[in-house]
Write a structure and sequence with these properties.
Layout: H1 10-21, H2 23-37, H3 47-66, H4 77-99, H5 101-104, H6 106-111, H7 118-144, H8 156-180, H9 184-198, H10 213-216, H11 220-233, H12 243-265, H13 269-272
């Protein structure tokens, strides 16, 4: 008979191993959410292109046309806005989709055991798919303006990974809290809307006074957006280098807090839902 050895921390290790064992369920949930998202819509997946494009048009008209905020260097204002809007749209969609994912899958969670972390993570993947689709508009705009990116474009996947992790941490935290406190579903849209205007989407972060740049970098999406702009616009966009490690540190902190809060409340999800 094989010998069973119980070690400290063994349950935690088995949990993360279980995530890998349930990877097929993760794929099924992610694909289901992607297919259902636009299944009964008239124009289907084109919504992933229309929403960020219309937002870019509004921001360009208001901030660039009326407020006349400066662009980065000689880069077209619309291109700067859309390049900054892409990571923010992914972040906001990830929070919105993941926050209600457990409640939306109440029947599945209350009847079958599996690592609950799979559900909100699959929702973040759906937002990530929209994010990738929206790159088609960015490529078309760069061709329209005849704007050729530089070699720093090769670093864009690095900032994509940071954007994904920056979205996953708060999404897990809010998802867990939304199960117990349902009024978070009203708080999240307000927080997302507020964050849009304090992040460098409709304006260049160069307008922020130098003495406030470090404090401004505590918003983890600031470094991500600046990184995107630098990768796409090249030398036309100035990246605030001290803010990058600060943003990565805040991202890591939120990711740890999100996972810790989720794991702490996970055993009570079936009862609360």
């Amino acid at each position: 008979m094989p010998e069973l050895v119980i070690e400290p921390g063994g349950a935690e290790r088995l949990y993360w191993e279980g995530l890998w064992q349930y990877r097929e369920l993760f794929k099924v949930l992610a694909w289901r959410d992607v297919s259902v998202r636009y299944k009964q819509t008239v124009i289907g997946i084109a919504w992933a292109l229309i929403r960020p494009f219309l937002t870019m048009v509004v921001f360009t008209a208001v901030f660039g046309g009326i407020a006349r905020l400066p662009s980065d260097g000689s880069a077209p204002y619309a291109l700067m806005v859309f390049a900054g809007l892409l990571p923010w749209a992914f972040f906001s969609a990830a929070l919105a989709d993941a926050s209600g994912s457990l409640v939306g899958n109440a029947n599945l969670i209350s009847k079958v055991y599996f690592p609950r972390l799979i559900v909100p993570t699959a929702s973040v993947i759906v937002a990530f798919v929209d994010f990738l689709i929206s790159f088609a508009i960015l490529a078309a705009m760069m061709a329209w303006y005849r704007f050729m990116p530089g070699p720093q474009l090769l670093l864009l996947p690095v900032f994509v990974v940071i954007a994904f992790l920056a979205s996953l941490g708060p999404a897990l935290w809010l998802t867990a809290l939304n199960v117990k406190y349902r009024d978070f579903r009203y708080v999240i849209p307000f927080v997302v809307q507020l964050g849009l205007y304090v992040s460098p989407v409709g304006f260049s972060s160069s307008v922020i006074p130098d003495e406030w740049r470090l404090l401004y970098s505590l918003n983890p999406m600031v470094g991500v957006i600046e990184g995107f702009l630098w990768c796409v616009l090249g030398e036309q966009s100035r990246i605030y280098l001290p803010g990058i490690p600060i943003g990565i540190g805040i991202t890591a902190l939120f990711l740890w807090l999100g996972i810790a809060q989720f794991r702490k409340m996970e055993k009570s999800f079936a009862d609360l839902i």
